[in-house]
Amino acid sequence: MKKGMLFTMVLGSIGLFFSCSTDDSGGGSGGGGIPTPVNFVIYAASNKSNTIAYYEIRPEDIYSGLHYVSSDKNEGILYDKDKDELILNSIPQRSTNIYGNMKGKSDRSELSLEMSGNSVLQNPHDVVKKDQFYIVSDSEPESEEGKIYIFERDENGMNLRNTVSLGYEVYGLEMVGNDLYHTIANTKDVAAFKDFLTTFTGDTLAATHKRIYIDGIKDVRGISFDRGVLVLTDVGEWSSNSDGALHWIRDFVTKFNNTDNGESLAIGEQIRVSGRLTKLGNPIDVAYDHDNGLIYVAENTRDGGAVLFFDNIQAGGEITPHLTFLLDGASSVTYGKLR
Asked: How far apart are the C-alpha atoms of 121 and 89, rounded to whole Å?
């Protein structure tokens, strides 16, 4: 039996327990925290509190819990499995913070800060990593201007290498090889910088190498790429808590390359998930797990905020999340395979 099929069956056996979610802060547990091996973990941040929710996926169970950080408003999160570190953008501290030794942290623990980047951020949205570089998307409040900060880490810490300024609000980030794909808030556009880290080594005002728009999307935000598939989130009208959507695009890089600059990727080349039953209102971040066919979504406003698990997105249309965990102001989500 394929790994993804097995996992879906395991989730199905406990789905009724979790589908109503845990408490409003995202805490609680399934199975009382039985010390079985953890296959992978999902972390989620909030832009309304200092809570970091986590969900440990075990062979026959899910355990959910909470950690806490000093910042009470965070957006942009990344788990580095190789270093066992959690990277997190703090809005009030204006920095990208790194917390270490995540596997050893107990439930309800305060995370210890390992290092921080320069305090230059204004309104960060996402963070990705490539080798020793940490790349952060940022925007100026009440402005459509955006920036991408590149921090470099060495034995002495993490310091700003250079800043790439943009004439639009950059939001979600995804590194595919050496190329940086990103979403442009308040549009339906996805753009790319080829060989990003070697092309932009100093402070500069940049134009994208290519920019296309995605048919069916109104306002794109989150982006995630795994094994050839790209997943995007659409928040629709920000004032609405019921018009969000997901777009699943197979062979995205090929389709992107075959679409002329400024032209559209047709809705027929995608799978769209939307509708009342999806619980998608303003989904602002997403993480895609190709091996298990699972998608984790940070829904920012509906029901106050939640982390949604989808396991059948390729069906398209109005599908229900397999699992729902309430998390006030859920702003970003990441996952890491541990085995």
From this structure: 9
Domains recognised in the chain with CATH numbers: 3-337 (2.120.10.30)
Which tens digit of pLDDT belongs to each residue from 110-152?
999 999 999 999 999 999 999 999 999 999 887 888 999 999 9
Q: CA-to-CA distance for 74 and 331, rounded, in angstroms? A: 7
Residue 149, phi-psi category: left (phi > 0), alpha (psi -120 to 50), beta (remainder) = beta
What is the Cα–Cα distance from 118 to 253, expressed in whole angstroms?
Answer: 33
Mean pLDDT, the chain, as a whole number?
90
**Long-range contacts, stretch 173-176, CB < 8 angstroms, 24+ apart:** 173/126, 173/127, 173/128, 173/135, 173/136, 173/137, 173/148, 173/223, 174/128, 174/223, 174/224, 174/225, 174/230, 175/128, 175/129, 175/130, 175/135, 176/225, 176/253
User: Which pair of structure tokens corresponds to residue 54?
Assistant: 């986590």
Is the full-model pTM beyond 0.85? yes
Mean pLDDT across 11-36: 37
Please check whether residue 71 is in contact with residue 91, taking contact to mean a CB–CB distance below 8 angstroms.
Answer: yes
